[in-house]
Amino acid sequence: MEGIYIKHVLFAIGVLIVIPALFSVIAKRPSLIPTPIQNIFEIYIEFVDNMLKENMGEKGRKYFALVAGLGLFIFFGNLLGMIPGFESYTANINTTLALALLVFVIYNIEGIKKHGASYIKQFMGPIPAAAPVFFIIEVISHISRPITLALRLFANMTGGELITIVLIMLIPLLIPLPIMVVHLIAVFLQTYVFMILTTVYIAGAISDEGH
């Protein structure tokens, strides 16, 4: 078990080194006739930028590095599980929980920085008389966010890996292809879910509504 954790850490470190290096090379030397890789990164940058602006307006660009970085790290972590001999570090609850707690801490810090002590009003609900009840419900809701974020990503990646491995072992190579396609869809979908929820949580924390 300890060996598996070490492999996950090594794969994660590898992604943290290779992807930023590739990204920096493309960003520093853009071609007038974009290469396929440059096209992919430009589409991704535009996608993240639009997602942030749709949820937070122009001020959302402040969080571009966070959301885009999480997306790349999670996507390539998810993708590793589909490559023979590699293991997805996002299929490790320690990794997904760390990412979820990072998001939890950041959006609460941003909320406090924006609203100060009045940030607590977000937990009080719209009816002053029912504020104690709303406060308990909202606190439980916020605490559950990192848990559900972590478990959703972990469960989907772990399940996808196990099903793919079992099918490849039990039946011929071409038969598991539909399952692998489903797994690939899950790779994209779970990356998007984590990114959009991160964006929504930050947007809610810095929103002026309710204050």
Describe the fold and architecture:
With 211 residues, the protein is an all-alpha fold. The chain has one domain (2-206). Helices cover 75% and strands 0% of the residues. The protein contains six helices and no strands. It has helices spanning 2-28, 36-56, 64-80, 93-115, 131-170, 177-206. Helix 5 (131-170) runs antiparallel to helix 6 (177-206).
Please describe the topology of this protein.
Elements: H1 2-28, H2 36-56, H3 64-80, H4 93-115, H5 131-170, H6 177-206
* Average pLDDT score: 84
Radius of gyration: 20 Å
> Structural class of the secondary structure composition?
mainly alpha
Main pleated sheet? none
* Percentage of residues in DSSP E strands: under 5%
| Total number of domains | 1
Number of strands: 0
Q: What portion of residues is helical? A: over 70%
Termini separation (Å)?
48 Å
Shape: globular
Number of helical segments with 4 or more residues? 6
Order of helix and strand elements from N to C terminus: HHHHHH
Low-confidence stretches: none
